[in-house]
UniProtKB/TrEMBL annotation:
Residues 144-286 form the GFO/IDH/MocA-like oxidoreductase domain. GO terms for molecular function: nucleotide binding; oxidoreductase activity. Keywords: Oxidoreductase. It comes from the Bacteria. It comes from Kribbella amoyensis. The keyword NADP does not apply. This is Putative dehydrogenase. InterPro entries: Gfo/Idh/MocA-like_OxRdtase_N, Gfo/Idh/MocA_oxidrdct_glycsds, GFO_IDH_MocA-like_dom, NAD(P)-bd_dom_sf. Residues 5-122 form the Gfo/Idh/MocA-like oxidoreductase N-terminal domain. SUPFAM superfamilies: Glyceraldehyde-3-phosphate dehydrogenase-like, C-terminal domain, NAD(P)-binding Rossmann-fold domains. PANTHER family: BCDNA.GH03377. Signal peptide: none annotated.
Amino acid sequence: MTNLGIGLIGYAFMGAAHSQAWRSAPRFFELPLHPDLNVLCGRDAEAVTAAADRLGWKETETDWRKLLQRDDVDLVDVCTPGDSHAEIAIAALEAGKHVLCEKPLANTVAEAEAMTAAADAAAAKGIRSMVGFTYRRVPAIGLARKLVADGRIGTIRHVRAQYLQDWIADPEAPLSWRLDKEKAGSGALGDIGAHIVDLTQFITGERITEVSGQLETFVKERPKAAAHSGLSGTASAERGPVTVDDAAVFISRFSGGAVGVFEATRFATGRKNAIRIEINGSASSLSFDFEDMNLLHYYDANEDPETAGFRRILATEPVHPYVGAWWPPGHLLGYEHGFTHQVVDLIAAIAEGKDPAPSFADGLQVQRVLAAVEDSSATRQWQEIPG
Ligand code: SOE
């Protein structure tokens, strides 16, 4: 077996999630290439060294450009805030490195277009790229997509999707980079709305063609953070502006004729990471909530009405996507497994010489939907999504 040298940039929440994925993938899955956790990169030498020890990386760099020059790095995993995705990913692809880039692909459509052009040029030379819409790799989501593809849902009429969190519902919760437009591009819209745009298109196999949206920033000023890690922080005495949306809501049309209702918010008090998707089709319905992520609810409209009803499918059988590599039925999977499945699929694509999904082009299409929601909110008009 050949090795695949990994260089990861960023070591906060996503960096830790990706680290565990690279570590655990070869321990549970038979892989055609073995990922070597060679280099962790971050700007603060002391902090990145401590993170490397904790997360299992052999060496560190403090300049991502140096990471790209290393022969022991075949793949660059970008877990930085969105403002650096385009610059790093394009440079990495041009340096001949495969790239995994966290979502949303970029902060603007123009950046996402440039990244997609670089990815296409690199693919012609056998260099692969993928955007990290991790929730595609939740087994129950994979099952939902299969049921749609197998025709079990019929013609899709309604797509209902919510991504609900509450980590800034407290107006005194401090500012993080996720509340800074310069760093994050947008707020709930890009950070979590991007996931439900991708997931609904992934499950239905249809494209969002048109949107009408509304963005809202409820709390316009917050304490600056004295320290911030993951989704929580400690407040300083100074205050600063929130420059992104706190909540994004929009309705949409899908290419197959379905109508969609979307909601992304960090103000849904009591909802921590509730990704709720319901699909109603002519033959049946599907319903999913990430806070109970091992379950898919399925209603078959052809069943005897006397006993028909939503039934819960526990997506932990070896026949369900990815599950066979883990535990016996009923021994549940969690948040981190999606990240592991993501790198398993990426490694397979690299070894087989195929383009992995979701591609940078898929990330660009999501970016166009996000931009259309912003435009719609600003103009109070429906917006079409080109392409
Ligand atoms: C913060 O809202 C966040 O970490 C997102 O950035 C991730 O994509 C999501 O998986 C969990 O929440």
